[in-house]
Amino acid sequence: MPRPIDYRCTSPYAAERMHAAMADPEYLRARLARMGGKGAELLEHSATGDGVRYRLRQGLDKDLLPSIVQSLVPGDLVIERAETLRPDPAGGYRGDVDVRVPGAPVTAGGRLRLTDVGGGSEFAVRAEVTVEVPFLGGKIESIVAEQVQKLLASETGFTKEWIARRSG
Prior knowledge:
Elements: E1 3-11, H1 15-22, H2 25-35, E2 41-48, E3 51-60, H3 67-70, E4 77-87, E5 93-100, E6 106-117, E7 120-131, H4 137-167
Antiparallel strand pairs: 1-7, 2-3, 3-4, 4-5, 5-6, 6-7
């Protein structure tokens, strides 16, 4: 049974400003350089009037994974993530996220939302993690969901720092 992820974070910056940072390939490369792990790379980036789409590759050293997860992965973990963000007619931005772990029975997917709230913005991710492993899938999904929450918090913190450095 898929494990839900419901992440929310507020920022003192307007949704438009957060979106501009998140859609910037320079920002994405800098974020990957800081927290993307081995083999991190911006694989694809396209921006149009309808929004932005990008694909990232991130790496995670197998030794940093819980032992139950290590048993599923032959080497270091490679995560491929595709995200889109587009203007929402109701205000702010909406998008999708799709995550794959090549060679492992782990996937995640869901929706992104970036909206203005009270003098700043809110970034929300609603997704589900699925691990197709009999008997252990639920436990692994829980571990993966927890790690995704931590990653999203780190990335949001990086985004706020990125904007602050460019505002000063």
